[in-house]
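Data deposition worksheet. Section B asks for the primary sequence of the deposited chain exactly as it was used as input, without tags or linkers unless they were present during the calculation. Section C holds the resulting structure in token form. Section D is free text for depositor observations; keep each observation to a single sentence. Incomplete worksheets are returned to the depositor.
Section A, Depositor: J.P.
Section B:
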Amino acid sequence: MSQKDPCQKQACEIQKCLQANKYIESKCEDVIRAMRRCCEVHTAQRSICCSGFVKEQEETIKNT
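Section C:
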């Protein structure tokens, strides 16, 4: 039995927000921040939903 992705709820909230706001990211900053926080907390669990956020963090670190 596989475990549910710990950040799946936040990922779904992002999709709902983006759809409701015609994909204007600035209107969904709060849910995107919640997703980033979840991904930071659950990095050791290799969340599939966080794969893009983890890559984004690695790029930011590499460029500083």
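Section D:
The two ends are 41 Å apart (CA to CA).
Residues 8-20 form the longest helix (13 residues).
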